Amino acid sequence: MGDIGRLLIGMGVVLIVIGAVLLLAGKVPWLGRLPGDILIERENVRIFIPIGTMLLLSLVLTVIANLLARFWR
After folding, report:
1. pLDDT in tens, 16-42
2. Nearest Cα to 53, choosing from 13, 25, 73?
3. DSSP letters of the chain?
4. Could you tell me how far CA 22 lies from the centroid of its own chain?
5. pTM flag (> 0.70)
6. Which first-to-last residue range defines the signal peptide (predicted)?
7. Where exactly are the structural domains of the chain?
8. In this structure, are residues 53 and 32 in contact, taking their beta carbons and an 8 Å threshold?
9. CB of 37 within 8 A of CB of 48?
C-alpha cells in the first residue's frame, strides 16, 4: 500500500505543476509567437502550429528532467 500512496502523491504533484504552468503560460506574451510558429488564417479557418514553442518547451523540459534524474541518483 505504501507504493500506491507514493505513486498517488507523485501524480498529484505532477498535476499541480502542470496546472501552475498552464496558468502562467497565458501571462508570457511571447509564448506562442516565436519564430517558427505557423499561423494560417482564412475566412472560416484558423490553423496554428506552434513548432518553435514546442521545441523550446521540449528543450526546457528535457533539461529539467535530466537535472532531476541526476539529483535522484
Report:
1. 988 888 888 778 787 778 899 999 999
2. 25
3. -HHHHHHHHHHHHHHHHHHHHHHHHTT-TTTT-STTEEEEE-SS-EEEEEHHHHHHHHHHHHHHHHHHHHHH-
4. 8
5. no
6. none
7. 1-28, 31-73
8. yes
9. yes
